[in-house]
Amino acid sequence: MKVSISAGRLLSALKEETAVIANTKKIPFDFLKYALIRTGEEEVNITATNLECWVTVTAKADVQQEGLCLIPVSQTLKLLRQTDPDTEVQISHTEEEEEEKTLFRCKDFSASFITPPASDFPEEEEKAEEEPVWIEASPFREAILRVFHAAEKKPDSSFPAGIHITHQDEKLLVVATDSRRLAIYERKFEHLPENLKLTIPISAAKTLVNVLKEQELAGLSVTNEWFTVTSDSVRLNIRPLERPFPDFNRIIKSVKFSSVITASYTEFLEAVKCMLIAADPSLRALKITFLRNKAVLSAAAEDGSIEGMTELPIKTEGNTKKTEIWLNARFLLEALQSAGQAEIHFQDSETPLCVIGENYREYIAPMREPV
């Protein structure tokens, strides 16, 4: 294989690839540190994977000899960052005495890397081609970012460590939960894939956010249990989680509210931040006392005593009786930040409360009072 490509194009492509390259100290297979280069007619397709998702970037190149090879991502990035973007880089591949090498040459540097056989690179499974449904990339990316904090992050948890993507009533729903909170972002799109109902791994969600960062449109398709997102010159193939996602609709229907409070978003947010600082870091316990015209926020110390206290004016609709609720202060802060406004629905001290925002809602389970 022999190709010539500008350093700038190759650098841009590899920046997309780094979204799926895991920490090299934790990579169980050596080939996951590499990206696969496969030639086309007048371009190269560069693919990287973490075995949960595959990112392929297409870049224009002068293909002098067809073939494929592996390149070490981190070392190549270091070289390219010190090179003029307009410099042409020649990449070639050789096999000598059962040893494969990838060679880089340009006016600024030359380098040679011994690599695993390109045939060892884990290719994506064959899947039927399906015309993607195109939607705006920015709100789709925003949906994932808004719920990401509430997703389970531990793969050995009883809950799926991922983000659920589906649709209901012509609306895209992006949902995340770690069993103690449930975040839902919904937005209407004119068209969505009919069979869109899957849960993507956390690592794939991070990669997807990176891929969509500067894109206008995203093409979505679901085929043979794969979720494919296409944008401009990038294609992301994601293997969804097999573990079923909790029935969040049943959870939502089971929660009833009798009171709604609204407050200054800035004041409420700052009050929660202050209480999070004051609260014992191992508990992060926050008590909110809702009264008719004000809310009193109290942080709990390690022994359960009150460490700090603040109050702010609120407007209450519905039941105005005094209600005390203990919450994880960090959970409430993250919910408010994602909602973008301070509207809270609640029932009593034993029922989850709900933080409401535009196209967004998050349910937070109450804590037991520290003792």
- Rg over alpha carbons: 25 Å
Inertia-based shape? elongated
Strand segment count: 26
Distance between the termini: 69 Å
Number of separate domains: 3
Q: Given this structure, which CATH class of the largest domain is correct?
A: Alpha Beta
Give an account of the 3D structure.
The chain has 371 residues and is of the alpha+beta class. It folds into 3 domains: 2-120, DNA Polymerase III, subunit A, domain 2 (DNA Polymerase III, Chain A, domain 2), CATH 3.10.150.10; 133-251, DNA Polymerase III, Chain A, domain 2 (Roll); 255-364, DNA Polymerase III, Chain A, domain 2 (Roll), CATH 3.10.150. It has helices at 7-17, 73-80, 137-147, 202-211, 248-254, 265-278, 329-339, and strands at residues 2-6, 34-39, 43-49, 53-60, 62-65, 68-72, 88-96, 99-105, 110-115, 133-136, 162-168, 171-177, 181-188, 198-201, 217-223, 226-231, 234-238, 259-263, 285-290, 294-300, 306-313, 315-318, 323-328, 342-346, 353-357, 360-364. The strands form 4 sheets. Strands 14-11-12-13-26-25-24-18-22 form a 9-stranded antiparallel beta sheet. It has an 8-stranded antiparallel beta sheet with strand order 6-2-3-4-17-16-15-10. The longest helix has 14 residues, at 265-278. It is elongated. The protein starts with a strand and ends in a 7-residue tail after the last strand.
